[in-house]
Amino acid sequence: MPIKEELKHKIIDGKIISGLLVERCQLAF
User: Fold this and answer.
1) How far apart, in whole angstroms, are the C-alpha atoms of residue 23 and residue 3?
2) 22 Cβ contact partners less than 8 Å away, ≥ 6 residues apart
3) How confident is the model at residue 1 (pLDDT cuts 50, 70, 90)?
């Protein structure tokens, strides 16, 4: 199903973005 594939990509992108935000926060402190 194309919809499930789109959700997978969105979840992966979200994890990458949140991971980058966490790294930035750790560098800030």
Assistant:
1) 30
2) none
3) low
